[in-house]
Amino acid sequence: MFTGIVQGIATIDAVHSQPGLNTYTIRFPEENLQNVSIGASVAINGTCLTVTSQQGSCLTFDAMQETLDLTTLGALKPGDAVNFERAARIGDEIGGHLLSGHIHTTATCVAIETPENNRTLQFELPAAWTRYVFGKGFIAINGASLTVGEVTGNCFNVHLIPETLRATTFSDTAVGDRVNIEIDSQTQAIVDTLDRLGYRQQPQ
């Protein structure tokens, strides 16, 4: 499990592609590698991956075809920056909301506003997933736990403070970029339960 509080930015060092499998070598800040072990879980842009080897400040991860199909990882190339979070431990503060690291879908950035001292990003989701997105609800974008701002049709936005921009890759997000989305599990369970009971959400 993860908390959605991004711990820092890592850099793709190398990508080795094979049929049905990509192997990523990712360089991390050394201070974030204490007590890391083979088999540990690390969220890369919100996607839970398993450490397969370590060499210095680099960790290696494998991503199978299903992961590449469901996420943006297949588009990563050497030099790209990614958000990361190591798995939560019992007793850790849950500063965001609980995440599994299992990506549901991707969204595309369709607009950016930059009012003073913050940034607003607007994303378009596949229609099937918009039923789980509500104003002031939780959503995870590239592994970061964020609060939804406004929702209009298939689009929603998030408002980012300077600290979030400093600690994540969102300061470099551009219109047209795709991001990984993990829907809040509690929201999904409630919506699906109400749907089964016949209380279908009306289109906005």
UniProtKB/TrEMBL annotation:
SUPFAM superfamilies: Riboflavin synthase domain-like
Keywords tagged on the record: Repeat, Riboflavin biosynthesis, Transferase
EC annotation from Swiss-Prot or TrEMBL: 2.5.1.9
Swiss-Prot/TrEMBL Lumazine-binding repeat ranges: 1-97, 98-194
Associated pathway: Cofactor biosynthesis; riboflavin biosynthesis; riboflavin from 2-hydroxy-3-oxobutyl phosphate and 5-amino-6-(D-ribitylamino)uracil: step 2/2
Origin superkingdom: Bacteria
Reaction catalysed by this enzyme: 2 6,7-dimethyl-8-(1-D-ribityl)lumazine + H(+) = 5-amino-6-(D-ribitylamino)uracil + riboflavin
Enzyme class: transferase
Domain spans labelled Lumazine-binding: 1-97, 98-194
Keyword Transferase: yes
Leader sequence segment: none
GO MF annotation terms: riboflavin synthase activity
PROSITE patterns registered for this protein in UniProt: LUMAZINE_BIND (PS51177)
GO biological process: riboflavin biosynthetic process
Function statement: Catalyzes the dismutation of two molecules of 6,7-dimethyl-8-ribityllumazine, resulting in the formation of riboflavin and 5-amino-6-(D-ribitylamino)uracil.
NCBIfam families: PRK09289.1, PRK13020.1, ribE
Stated name of the protein: Riboflavin synthase
